[in-house]
Specification:
The structure holds two protein chains of two kinds. Chain A is mainly alpha-helical. In chain A, helix 4 runs parallel beside helix 7, helix 11 packs parallel to helix 13 and helix 14 packs across helix 19. Chain A is globular and about 70 Å long. By secondary structure, chain B is an all-alpha fold. Chain B has one domain. In chain B, helix 2 packs across helix 3 and helix 8 packs across helix 9. The chains are: A mainly alpha, B mainly alpha.
């Protein structure tokens, strides 16, 4: 890579002596929290839908019977239902709004770490721009009033990543004591995040390998010492739940068990786009054609030679019918993993062209400009007569669409043109790769959420400092990425437009 | 602590070993769990937990759980035990009559939940039972149909807090409207 320019506009990656601009960060975080608080106030009373209802069911059972159930097809980690259960125990059903308020407050952690990343990577100016982008990032902010896990999860994941990056920094600088403490803290936070979503289960070992690789200069023993610390911390933090699972199920489950059902959904004949599927009922009510009929069939149609499973035996092939059925012999989700994984992979291998084109569709759904905020608007979830459903509807939906699209494009520019080599770039690359690869199975805008703070930080870097790394491979990388992004947007464009029209309230 | 100390590792491993030891000491065998689940002398919490353990350790449908224990729980005086029979734990062990559709709901629990309400209308227990049975995640074969909606959750919590439920007519109207919602339009299951 060529040397970067060093003009006055150059970012100065934060040195150990650089002072964190806490005052600016705190003020912006407060503004962001206030905006989310106002949004919450505007959207209440808010009904529940989809997984929100499932989390609430689990919480009600915990409240009444004192036990935590699995979900038959899934086995989710217990953290979020536990939070709901405690909220409704203390405040009745109004506890749902108390939890929403707690999420608004917790979002400050997301804002602060996003700004810290931008500061660490680029500069004070970038941190402030990142804060401003985060404050108005409606797709991210809306999760504070949803009863989905994303806000709580991110408020654990981002600090975990931050302390991991700082541990890499400190280890590079020979500050082993602080590096050790930060690795420990990072592991504890990753462990707590696993109580909310088991998503990071395989991310931690990858990051540990990164730590070992980057520490190889310190000797094998030291590399192992550093790499194993977060792993052990995660193991200890999650062990009570793992042991509980072993006692209840007689099987080892760390975090949760969702792979089997995700394979059933993701490696099966029918295309399921979860950003638009819940719009079916409303589209029927409005007399609109179902969105899947608008999709580019090249990327969604069932494989050639496919024999559908008529699941309810009514003789009609419906949207719920599949290429292969769930494994019914095993009565637990935990035991269905291996057989459903085998069935899914066999189906994929049997239909390679279908597999390839539908994986492109998955990635298209990952990078859609839609979000759960636009989905909520399209479903008509926000109270009629309220500002979010009324006067603010169009500007808010446009803002949500715009900020999702912009942070993806600008974030790519920041990654290739502004971000310099270093531990933080390595960690960001690992996270981006992890999200992209896991989305090959099931994808939707919600699965992009772990990347959104990263994209904000990178966008802020690019907006603050523009082109910093003059390198042909990076320029080619950016051109390729933007081309692929545009191509992926094109794949789902008809559904995106139809869902966006519903969100805007301008359906034909 | 020295800069490159292994002390944190040792401490973490020792903590983990301690937790494993405690778990091993508190372990309940499956036979013991089954015994407690059927034991009228055991407390409700003990029986619910034991049923939870026994039902989840089983790797195939067990008539002792899906039939005998369900009947025992549904016949219990304690409302929590009766409600415990309606969750996923025992529902997935349901024994269906020959010829039943693959997505047929657990018969014992269905009969209990859909028994006509008495003259007094919906008791708090009946409302909770319906929510616990019909709003579970997992599909119709385990009794779940349609997701929870906020009014039901509110009634559930109100019932626990002693807040009066809405009049029977209102609940009936709500349940009829929900039952008419087209399931297939909501999302593939």
């Amino acid at each position: 890579m060529n040397a970067a320019s060093t003009d006055a506009n150059s970012p100065r990656p934060a040195s150990p002596l650089a002072r964190v601009p806490w005052r600016a960060i705190a003020i912006i975080a407060l503004v962001g929290v206030a905006l989310r608080g106002i949004l919450l106030w505007l959207v209440l009373p808010l009904d529940i839908q989809s997984d929100e209802a499932n989390y609430l069911y689990l919480a009600l059972v915990k409240e009444r019977l004192g036990i935590y159930l699995d979900q038959h097809r899934y086995f989710w980690p217990p953290g979020y239902p536990w939070l709901i259960s405690n909220s409704i125990h203390a405040f009745g059903i109004d506890g749902l709004n108390v939890l929403r308020a707690l999420q608004v407050a917790l979002s400050s952690v997301i804002g602060v770490t996003t700004m810290l990343f931008a500061w660490r990577l680029f500069s004070r100016r970038a941190a402030i721009i990142a804060g401003a982008l985060w404050a108005v990032d409606l797709p991210l902010g809306a999760y504070t009033h949803f009863l989905w896990t994303e806000t709580v999860f991110l408020s654990l994941l981002l600090p975990a990543l931050w302390h991991f990056v700082r541990a890499l920094d400190r280890a590079d600088e020979g500050e082993d004591h602080e590096a050790t403490l930060r690795l420990l803290l990072s592991g504890v936070l990753f462990g707590l995040a696993l109580y909310i979503k088991e998503y990071v289960l395989f991310l931690v070992p990858i990051l540990a390998a990164v730590m070992a690789w980057r520490s190889r200069g310190a000797g094998l023993g030291e590399a192992l010492r550093r790499a194993t610390l977060p792993l052990l911390a995660v193991a200890v933090v999650t062990l009570p739940w793992t042991l509980r699972n072993h006692e209840v199920y007689g099987r080892t489950v760390v975090g949760g068990a969702t792979l089997g059902e995700n394979v059933y959904v993701g490696l099966n004949a029918r295309s399921m786009n979860f950003d638009v599927l819940p719009l079916r009922k409303r589209r029927a009510d409005l007399g609109l054609p179902q969105i899947e009929t608008l999709a580019r069939s090249s990327f969604t149609e069932v494989p050639a030679g496919w024999t559908p499973v008529d699941r309810d035996g009514n003789g009609e092939i419906e949207v719920r019918d599949a290429g292969w059925d769930r494994e019914f012999e095993s009565i637990h989700a935990i035991d269905r993993h291996s057989s459903q994984l085998r069935a899914g992979l066999a189906f994929a291998v049997e239909h390679p062209a279908w597999t390839l084109r539908t994986r492109l569709k998955k990635w298209s759904e990952l990078v859609t400009p839609l979000s759960f905020f636009t989905r909520h608007q399209a479903m008509g979830m926000y109270p009629e007569g309220g500002a979010v459903h009324g006067a603010l509807r169009v500007p808010l939906v446009l803002l949500a669409l715009l900020i999702s699209s912009l942070t993806m494009a600008l974030g790519a520019a920041g990654y290739f043109l502004t971000l310099r080599r270093g531990p933080c770039r390595t960690v960001f690359s690992v996270l981006i790769g992890y999200v992209v690869l896991t989305s090959l199975l099931v994808a939707m805008s919600r699965f992009r959420v772990p990347l959104e703070p990263v994209l904000i930080a990178l966008s802020a870097g690019f907006l603050s400092h523009g082109l910093q790394v003059r390198s042909r491979p990076r320029a080619v990388g950016l051109a390729l990425t933007l081309t692929v992004l545009a191509g992926l947007w094109w794949i789902s464009w008809p559904e995106t437009v139809a869902a966006a029209q519903m969100a805007l309230g301008v359906t034909p | 602590m020295k800069a490159r100390s292994w002390a944190p590792h040792i401490l973490l491993v020792a903590t983990a070993l301690g937790m494993v030891l405690v778990a091993a000491l508190k372990h309940t065998s499956t036979e013991e769990a089954l015994r407690i689940a059927f034991d009228d002398e055991a407390s409700t919490d003990e029986r619910l937990w034991a049923a939870h353990v026994a039902a989840n350790r089983a790797t195939s449908r067990d008539p002792r759980l899906g039939d005998t224990l369900v009947r025992a729980f549904l016949a219990a005086e304690d409302e929590r035990l009766r409600e415990g029979a309606l969750t996923i734990d025992l529902s997935r062990h349901a024994i269906h009559p020959p010829g039943a559709r693959p997505d047929a709901a657990p018969p014992l629990q269905s009969a209990y939940v859909y028994a006509a309400p008495g003259d007094g209308g919906y008791t708090p227990h009946r409302v909770r039972s319906r929510v616990l049975f019909r709003r579970k995640v997992g599909g119709s074969s385990v009794g779940g149909i349609r997701r929870m909606a906020l009014p039901e959750a509110r009634w559930f919590m109100d019932s626990l807090r002693g807040t009066p439920l809405p009049p029977r007519a209102e609940i009936d109207r709500y349940l009829v409207e929900r039952s008419r919602e087209p399931v297939n339009l909501r999302r593939p299951r």
